[in-house]
Amino acid sequence: xxxxxxxxxxxxxxxxxxxxxxxxxxxxxxxxxxxxxxxxxxxxxxxxxxxxxxxxxxxxxxxxxxxxxxxxxxxxxxxxxxxxxxxxxxxxxxxxxxxxxxxxxxxxxxxxxxxxxxxxxxxxxxxxxxxxxxxxxxxxxxxxxxxxxxxxxxxxxxxxxxxxxxxxxxxxxxxxxxxxxxxxxxxxxxxxxxxxxxxxxxxxxxxxxxxxxxxxxxxxxxxxxxxxxxxxxxxxxxxxxxxxxxxxxxxxxxxxxxxxxxxxxxxxxxxxxxxxxxxxxxxxxxxxxxxxxxxxxxxxxxxxxxxxxxxxxxxxxxxxxxxxxxxxxxxxxxxxxxxxxxxxxxxxxxxxxxxxxxxxxxxxxxxxxxxxxxxxxxxxxxxxxxxxxxxxxxxxxxxxxxxxxxxxxxxxxxxxxxxxxxxxxxxxxxxxxxxxxxxxxxxxxxxxxxxxxxxxxxxxxxxxxxxx
Length: 468
Ligand code: UDX
Hints:
Blueprint (H helix, E strand, L loop, with lengths): L2 E5 L3 H12 L3 E5 L3 H8 L10 H11 L2 E4 L2 H5 L5 E4 L14 H13 L5 E4 L7 H15 L7 E4 L9 H6 L4 E5 L2 H11 L9 E4 L1 H32 L3 H9 L20 H14 L5 H24 L8 E5 L14 H11 L3 E5 L4 H8 L4 E2 L3 H7 L2 E4 L4 H4 L13 E4 L6 H6 L3 E4 L3 H9 L8 H12 L1
Parallel strand pairs: 1-2, 1-4, 2-3, 4-5, 5-6, 7-8, 9-10, 9-12, 10-11, 12-13, 13-14
Antiparallel strand pairs: 6-7
Helix pairs in contact: 1-3, 5-6, 9-11, 9-12, 11-12, 12-13
Uridine-5'-diphosphate-xylopyranose binds next to helix 9.
């Protein structure tokens, strides 16, 4: 059992604190935002994250999870490990804003009169942990203190919507450390979460900091690659989903993060890709691949709107476009950098009337668009009201609809931004199906032909002849 302190009650901090408290650690979480602090004290989670509220409630009941609103008070508990999980938002030039990181470090330094491992868990550029160490050392020097401490980098790999699961069952735990003492301290903390010791990977601090950006950038690059490939598929009659299957069956490529669509959003990929690009510029090593991935991601939203516009012969004034899905992905209420925001803005600029529905993201979208949109109370209402439907987030409840219900759409056309509907079944229901990288299916629907369906007996004959 260890005494821990976590600074920041956001997606990363609250998940970290709640999950550590579940494994017999004594955790004190610092949240200085008054509204959030009040909610946390009542055991309420200020955002949607499946399973987190139960963990927070349990931690409060067991008193293994305590909330305070300032670092000084938390430091009185003399935690062995201090996790900094504060926000590192994007600045206009793409650089990560480290204001909160260094103000937390300064406050820690002011009150550090015991050995602790100060761990940065916020996504921050390579070299940040070194600077945190300097900030703390400067505060100790001001007080004439020679208190020993260690610093470490421990990036998180939590996906929104599955963050609790990702914390309890990590692919790997990465720690960047400078001393054996810090390494052993963190190993003893994370041991209960690692089935195998080799899941716990230690390296230099800078390597751990870069690993975080590199991992997210690789995932974002795959998505942008598939999205650009989908545009080529549309021009060459290929089906991007077949290509995805074909590629993913190569174990070296793997099946995940190959789904083409309107692109990635969220509070991480867009921010981290831009921060890595900025890091490249800062270090005179342009990250040109990531620049292309970032551009491709932004472009995909425009191409999706152009597809809708093209269907309506470049005039959607007065058309009622239904939007299913506002959040950047399912199982979250987070709309940060969601493609839906840009797509809705463009459709409004083009004169369309928009009706939206999302299981979790409605209030956040209403805070942005207010009375410019119509807010449906359920998914079915969108089908009844709209001329056509744009599906932007692949929530299960949308996929549960029977294709025959889509004929309620006045123009009987669906623009599938996540390539998640069954194109054949939608088309057979008499609804035009348009997506990104699946254009050929629409061509087939016009021909009504079966040129895509190779007669299996032909194939089996070929095989039997070959075996003779
Ligand atoms: C991501 C990383 O997965 C996680 O490891 C890191 O710690 C934080 O950033 P998150 O942003 O929560 O997690 O969501 P993720 O599931 O990775 O999806 C990110 C975006 O990519 C979503 O907008 C999703 O719709 C999109 N995506 C994902 C695709 O467009 N295609 C895919 O195949 C997969």
